[in-house]
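As a warm-up, study this chain.
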Amino acid sequence: MSRPGAPSRRLAGCVALTATALALAGCGSDNSPSNAGKPELKITGAYMPAPVMDTMAAGFFTVTNSGGADTLTSVTSDLAPDVTLHSTKGGAMEEQKSFAVPTDGSLDFASGGNHLMFEKLTHKPLEGEKVSVTLHFTKAGAVKVSMPVKSATYNPKTGH
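Now compare it with the structure written out below.
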């Protein structure tokens, strides 16, 4: 025998459970901020100061993103078998595994800050040469960049 009001309580419980399940399902939809869209990356200001050593060089550029967040995970180049990502904090250089590229933001690689290190150069690039570099991003994939070699003292107006 059922008690009076039991079916309405069960119905209310089912409605509440269904509403909760629908709300949670909506959390994973493509409209959530974590899936705000795919990255739209533009690389500007790329350059390499003419290296003073035969074995090492640095590289600088800016990644501007007008889409969803991404991560720069590695860099490759025919100029060097080993290209690493570095940050500089408090005057100390530290190798990094990756760099975040924020949604609708930018990531700067500039003298005195984040930079690329090309190690074990295949040859010492001269001013006027162009170095081919491939930036590898988690979502955007591989992005090829032509990095002109500038004078060793080059200092762009953009602060790189």
